[in-house]
Amino acid sequence: MATRVLIVDDEKYVRMGIRNETDWGLIGCEVVGEAADGQAALELAAEVKPDLVISDIKMPVMDGITFAGKLLEKRPATKVIFLTAFSDFEYARQAVRLGISDYLLKPFKDGELEASIQRLLHLHPNVPASIKEAEEEMIPLRKKSEFSNRYIVEAIDYIEKHYPEADLSVGKLAESLGVSDGHLSRLFKSETDMGINNYLTRYRIRKAMDYLKDVQIKVYEVAEKVGYQDIAYFSNTFKKLTGRTPSDYQLKGLG
Questions:
Q1: Topology match between the domains 3-122 and 131-252
Q2: Distance (Å, rounded) from C-alpha 67 to C-alpha 41?
Q3: Relative orientation angle of helices 131-138 and 112-122, to the nearest 10 degrees
Q4: How far apart are CA 131 and CA 151, in angstroms?
Q5: What gap in Å lies between CA 181 and CA 93, rounded to an integer?
Q6: Which fold has domain 3-122?
Q7: How is 35-50 classified by DSSP, letter by letter?
């Protein structure tokens, strides 16, 4: 079940940027609404019931702090990430102490928002004792044994065997199974609630986490082992899903 996200900012193009430039599917989220001020967001939240709100602080009608306070009174389990300009930095830090989940300084870098969301949704105080369990909770993937559909089982089996290949694609996968790209994509999405490319990305990053447990291995070697030729792209994708760069993860794990 995807995490439901509400975006709140009085600047239309900021909202569009967040919606269009964030890889929601990769991190298991879907945008369920947008609002231009706190009052409108409060009314919309009652309707769409978001699990996560990404909100500006300074807005007309009702500011982000007031909005978040009213929202959390009604829906205390909701996670809130504030987007803040440098001039409001201390204000945002105080808000975190009052119970707001996280804040990002504008303009944030590519991958920072996804990383913040992953931390909030998965790195809570009750992280399982087992490192493996913690990793599986952070990047959940259903196993092929959970499926009865032959094509899904064979598709996952193919991914598990061929993920190191940089040119692995939906087309190659479909061809190996003797079905069309479109049919396989639709079937995979309906059965797993995830696109094939997102499944492949998650599987590769989970494998990368295993490789990085060896502190002797170089990050670029790990990237190559899991099918990435561009180390910068690998590092950015890794951070989007784990909240850490590969080198940081190698040193500190998920802790």
A1: no
A2: 8
A3: 120
A4: 31
A5: 48
A6: Rossmann fold (3.40.50)
A7: ESSHHHHHHHHHHH--
Could you give the 3-state DSSP secondary structure of residue 30?
strand
Coil/strand/helix, residue 26: coil
> pTM for this structure?
0.75
CB-based contact 243:134 (threshold 8 Å) = no
- pLDDT category of residue 86 using cuts at 50, 70 and 90: low
DSSP notation for 65-116:
HHHHHHHHHH-TT-EEEEEE-GGGHHHHHHHHHTT--EEEESSPPTTHHHHH
Any idea which fold 131-252 has? Arc Repressor Mutant, subunit A (1.10.10)
Ramachandran bin of 192, using left for φ above 0, alpha for ψ from -120 to 50, beta for the remaining angles: alpha
pLDDT tens digits, residue range 215-233? Answer: 889 999 999 999 999 999 9
What sign results for the dihedral spanned by CA atoms 28, 33, 34, 39?
A: negative
Q: How far apart (Å, rounded) are the C-alpha atoms in residues 47 and 51?
A: 12
